[in-house]
Design a protein that fits this description.
One of its GO terms (cellular component) is cytoplasm. This protein is α/β, with parallel strands linked by helices. 37% of the residues lie in helices and 19% in strands. It has a single domain, classed as Rossmann fold (3-Layer(aba) Sandwich). A hairpin with a 2-residue loop joins strand 3 and strand 4. Helix 2 packs across helix 6, helix 3 packs across helix 4 and helix 7 packs antiparallel against helix 8. The termini are far apart.
Length: 198
């Protein structure tokens, strides 16, 4: 019997060791074709430009790729529960919250504008609220892609889940991508100076 237990123990799968990364870049959005081109999915759009094929992360509700010390990831949950992936990802990759970069849509910026900030309120964004809850802090970096406020008579949920215009798409796949690369190579101040001048 003891020998059988030893043999079973030998074949038992052990969890993979954490993968080291200097940064964790998370693109926010909702999974599925239904949401692919919506304003709420600008984070996914940016991530598609930054990273190639993403692979499942064992034990985490996320897809990711590590390249040159940067882990690029998106959750496989819906936006409102993104933190369920981001919290475990920081542990998996050994990244402190202040080196987490979150790319997300921002109602309070004009469509097509990209702005960077560290920490601060979530401004009603449920994806950010979930991340803050699971990280236990607001002290992470944000790449905010402006989508503008909805016109009169249009509800916010309908607006964020509506199709992103060309201006928003261009910002997500252009300035937001540049912002992430500058943040990971030059730091926040230089990244802000470059991106905010555009």
């Amino acid at each position: 019997m003891a020998r059988v237990c030893v043999m079973l123990g030998f074949f038992r799968r052990t969890p993979p060791p954490p993968l080291d990364a200097d940064w964790l870049v998370v693109g926010l959005g909702n999974p599925g074709d239904k949401y692919a081109g919506t304003r709420h999915n600008v984070g996914y759009m940016a991530l598609a430009q930054l990273a190639g094929n993403l692979a499942p992360v064992p034990g985490v509700k996320a897809l990711a790729q590590v390249r040159d010390g940067v882990a690029y990831a998106r959750s496989t949950t819906y936006m409102n529960t993104t933190g369920e992936a981001v919290g475990p990802l920081t542990a998996q990759f050994g990244v402190a919250p202040e080196r987490v970069i979150v790319i997300h849509d921002e109602l309070d910026l004009p469509a097509g504008t990209v702005r960077l900030k560290f920490s601060g309120n979530e401004n009603g964004h449920n994806g950010l609220k979930s991340i803050t809850e699971h990280l236990g802090t607001r002290d992470y970096l944000r790449v905010r892609v402006g989508i503008g406020r909805p016109p009169s008579g249009v509800a916010v949920p309908d607006w964020v889940l509506g199709p992103a215009g060309e201006e928003v798409r261009a910002a997500a796949t252009g300035d937001a991508v540049d912002a992430v690369r500058l943040l990971t190579s030059e730091g926040l101040q230089k990244a802000q100076n470059a991106i905010h001048a555009r």
